[in-house]
């Protein structure tokens, strides 16, 4: 049955035909205009075709068949008329079918001669051509890129052969004539340069990106993609391997957010949109398209540009009032991890530098000539820190903190002090930091989460600063954990979010206990208290969410499968409820907690370091982790454990995982949890007393609670049917709820509402009030 995909509520399409051509490097040259709220410029893409690289993903056997082989309409580099006919194409991707439908002769071009990406209200696109586009009965090969809400102005082939000095990349026998084959050979030699020559490689990428055009290419856009072809290029091998796209974003594009910071100054940043970066630049979104990039960004001189980049960029003044910033990345990663933030940020520096601080901050850059290799890596070649002996011993990488000026003081007091111990703790648990440096940015108040990690940069919500170190520390540890799980090791299928969020949630407790240098008993007590909290949240979420969205591996045996072109969909990727769910965090956490307890912490974390060393720089599926783990478990400890059983009990079923059903709840033997239980009993006793009697008797004496204990107390109170108004007022006075952190305080900015807010709103509706207000 053919099902039309509703982009407003269902699955996210990944349209790029990565099985035919794969982007290896992006060069962006952009200008940020805050008056028009537009980012405009060019992006140059350097490709390898399917005959050059080995497919890294399994593929379904379905093929895309044309219902009509008639002519197609493209934006042309010269004035001409190409008749358009209606076409209807079914595109099979294995586990979710959708329809690509055409709107007929209607032309919705804007003044630039470009589609406005709003041709249809339903369906996935208005395409006149097939997505699976190697050469299925058509004359020309079609390159498909992921693209949404962009005004594409021009697409052209880059004449890389015209770059001075490029002859060193060409074999002498091929120097006679300039041809498509020669240009593609130059690109191939450039993208496959040994990692030791990474500086030279980046230099020539920039030179090639500035080379003249050797011809414009036909292109067209629809809701989700940009399609490009060249007359006479019938295969991916024949297609240009270096293309330049001139484009501009739209103010309403979902990949970036234009807003004001806490000081009222304008800013723009990528805030983790469900559609990733396709409304920021045309790209290949599927995770398998792991690429490097470099970007030059121009903005008014008063602005600071932060970006995913290995270098700590400094501004270059171009002319009065305008500066340029340049960043680069040499570790291949999915384009979805690219992040940018432009604003009037203030760099927060310590009030005083000590000699120890200066020693810690000393970087260990990768050198082309002096690099001692300490092991063999399994990933594609790049300048890897795991192979640099100096980098492997670096506990604290260089880091900077940026924030609006009004938050400088609190960042100095809280965040700057937490960074070194948290980074050092992560290193002690997992070993080498995958990235050479780190920026932290306190993002505007409209940020919808507590944090987001990207290569070399972490966004933190200002809410993390309200709870002192209690909230900021664990959240910082969570985002640092993503450096390993989510970035250095990525999920090959985005539906397996638990491989990122489950690991980060499990590791944040371990990192945070290590950062505080807690004694073993105190660390265990803290971890059990937080496990108890998560157990309450998991049960609550599973009671109030659709069953189909509680499954961590929704595609089951088809996880990781794509169409023959490389296109696929992300299950529930556009469902608005997904942004408010934590099931991947929580069920993933409890699975890892279960496995760690089965092995013992010492054995488990020793294994985890081995896993990180083997799989960093690569994409994985759940079975890659589970199979390696089970191989490291002694036979006597895994009589009932198998990959299949774990899939069935934990990853492919809704509700409470089977091993947790009937088991003792987390925190049952935890002293910190028992103290909360005792306080709950006092509050219930107070709540049940008649009001007059309550005044005559001695008031209850409540114990001071840790922040996590307070949240657990509030979670217990949420389970009560009725709390009287005097009880709520006493609760507020006793714990000063409005002064608590973002997990407890009413009105805090979180994906889900904080505990105190839910207690007050839930029970005030039931309690009588003299003036009718809570």
UniProtKB/TrEMBL annotation:
<protein>
    <submittedName>
        <fullName>Aminopeptidase O isoform X9</fullName>
    </submittedName>
</protein>
<keyword id="KW-0031">Aminopeptidase</keyword>
<feature type="compositionally biased region" description="Polar residues">
    <location>
        <begin position="762"/>
        <end position="774"/>
    </location>
</feature>
<dbReference type="GO" id="GO:0005730">
    <property type="term" value="C:nucleolus"/>
</dbReference>
<feature type="region of interest" description="Disordered">
    <location>
        <begin position="742"/>
        <end position="774"/>
    </location>
</feature>
<keyword id="KW-0378">Hydrolase</keyword>
<dbReference type="InterPro" id="IPR033577">
    <property type="entry name" value="AOPep"/>
</dbReference>
<dbReference type="InterPro" id="IPR014782">
    <property type="entry name" value="Peptidase_M1_dom"/>
</dbReference>
<feature type="domain" description="Peptidase M1 membrane alanine aminopeptidase">
    <location>
        <begin position="433"/>
        <end position="650"/>
    </location>
</feature>
<dbReference type="InterPro" id="IPR042097">
    <property type="entry name" value="Aminopeptidase_N-like_N_sf"/>
</dbReference>
<dbReference type="Pfam" id="PF01433">
    <property type="entry name" value="Peptidase_M1"/>
</dbReference>
<dbReference type="GO" id="GO:0070006">
    <property type="term" value="F:metalloaminopeptidase activity"/>
</dbReference>
<dbReference type="InterPro" id="IPR038502">
    <property type="entry name" value="M1_LTA-4_hydro/amino_C_sf"/>
</dbReference>
<dbReference type="GO" id="GO:0008270">
    <property type="term" value="F:zinc ion binding"/>
</dbReference>
<keyword id="KW-0645">Protease</keyword>
<dbReference type="InterPro" id="IPR027268">
    <property type="entry name" value="Peptidase_M4/M1_CTD_sf"/>
</dbReference>
């Amino acid at each position: 049955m053919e099902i039309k995909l509703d982009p407003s509520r269902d699955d996210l399409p990944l349209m790029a035909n990565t099985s035919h051509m794969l982007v290896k490097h992006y060069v962006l040259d952009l200008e940020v205009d805050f008056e028009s709220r537009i980012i405009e410029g060019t992006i140059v893409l350097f490709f390898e075709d399917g005959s050059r690289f080995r497919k890294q993903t399994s593929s379904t056997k379905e093929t895309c068949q044309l219902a009509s082989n008639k002519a197609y309409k493209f934006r042309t580099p010269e004035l001409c008329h190409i008749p358009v006919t209606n076409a209807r194409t079914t595109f099979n991707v294995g586990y979710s079918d959708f329809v690509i439908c055409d709107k007929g002769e209607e032309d919705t071009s804007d003044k630039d001669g470009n589609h406005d990406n709003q041709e249809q209200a339903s369906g996935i696109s208005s395409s006149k051509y097939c997505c699976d586009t190697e050469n299925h009965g058509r004359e020309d090969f079609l390159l498909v890129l992921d693209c949404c809400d962009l005004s594409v102005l021009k697409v052209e082939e880059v004449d890389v052969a015209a770059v001075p000095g490029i002859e060193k990349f060409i074999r002498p026998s091929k120097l006679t004539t300039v041809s498509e084959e020669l240009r593609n050979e130059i690109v191939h030699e450039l993208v496959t340069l040994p990692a030791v020559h990474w500086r030279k490689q980046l230099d020539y990428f920039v030179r090639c990106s500035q080379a003249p055009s050797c011809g414009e290419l036909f292109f067209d856009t629809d809701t989700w993609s940009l399609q490009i072809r060249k007359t006479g290029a019938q295969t991916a091998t024949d297609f240009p391997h270096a293309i330049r796209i001139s484009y501009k974003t739209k103010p309403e594009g979902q990949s970036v957010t234009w807003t004001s910071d806490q000081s009222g100054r304008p800013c723009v940043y990528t805030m983790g949109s469900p559609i990733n970066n396709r409304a920021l630049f045309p790209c290949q979104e599927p995770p398998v398209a792991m690429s490097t990039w470099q970007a030059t960004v121009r903005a008014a001189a008063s602005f600071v540009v932060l970006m995913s980049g290995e270098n700590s960029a400094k501004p270059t003044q171009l002319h009065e009032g305008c500066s340029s910033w340049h960043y680069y990345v040499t570790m291949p990663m999915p384009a979805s991890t690219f992040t940018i933030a432009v604003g009037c940020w203030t760099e927060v520096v310590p009030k005083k530098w000590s000699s120890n601080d200066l020693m810690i901050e000393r970087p260990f850059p990768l050198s082309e000539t002096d690099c001692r290799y300490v092991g063999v890596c399994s990933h594609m070649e790049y300048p890897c820190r795991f192979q640099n002996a100096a980098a492997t011993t670096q506990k604290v990488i260089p880091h900077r903190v940026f924030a609006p000026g009004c938050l400088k003081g609190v960042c100095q007091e809280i965040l700057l002090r937490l960074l070194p111990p948290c980074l050092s703790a992560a290193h002690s648990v997992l070993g080498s930091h995958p990235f050479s440096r780190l920026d932290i940015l306190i993002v505007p108040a409209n940020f919808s989460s507590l944090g987001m990690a990207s290569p070399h940069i972490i966004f933190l919500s200002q809410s993390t600063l309200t709870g002192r170190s209690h909230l900021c520390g664990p959240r910082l540890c969570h985002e640092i954990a993503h450096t390993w799980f989510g970035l250095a090791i990525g999920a090959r299928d985005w539906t397996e979010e638990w491989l990122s969020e489950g690991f980060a949630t499990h590791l944040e407790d371990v990192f945070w206990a290590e950062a505080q240098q807690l004694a073993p008993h105190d660390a265990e007590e803290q971890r059990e208290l937080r496990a108890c909290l998560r157990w309450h949240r998991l049960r609550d979420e599973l009671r109030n969410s659709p069953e189909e969205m509680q499954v961590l591996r929704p595609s089951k045996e088809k996880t990781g499968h794509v169409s023959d072109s490389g296109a696929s969909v992300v299950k529930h990727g556009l469902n608005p409820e997904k942004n408010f769910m934590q099931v991947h965090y929580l069920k993933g956490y409890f699975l890892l907690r279960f496995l760690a307890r089965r092995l013992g912490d010492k054995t488990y974390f020793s294994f985890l370091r081995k896993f990180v060393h083997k799989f960093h720089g690569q994409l994985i599926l759940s079975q890659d982790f589970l199979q390696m783990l089970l191989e490291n478990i002694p036979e006597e400890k895994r009589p009932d454990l198998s990959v299949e059983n774990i899939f069935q009990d934990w990853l492919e079923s809704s509700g409470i995982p089977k091993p947790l059903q009937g088991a003792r709840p987390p925190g049952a033997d935890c002293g910190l949890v028992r103290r909360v239980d005792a306080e709950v009993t006092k509050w219930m006793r107070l709540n049940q007393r008649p009001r007059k009697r309550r005044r005559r008797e001695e008031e209850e004496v409540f114990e001071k609670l840790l922040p996590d204990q307070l949240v657990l107390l509030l979670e217990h109170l949420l389970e009560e049917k009725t709390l009287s108004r005097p009880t709520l007022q006493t609760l507020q006075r006793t714990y000063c709820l409005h002064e608590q952190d973002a997990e407890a305080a009413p009105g805090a900015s979180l994906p889900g509402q904080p505990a105190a807010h839910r207690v007050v709103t839930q029970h005030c509706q039931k309690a009588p009030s003299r003036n009718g207000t809570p």
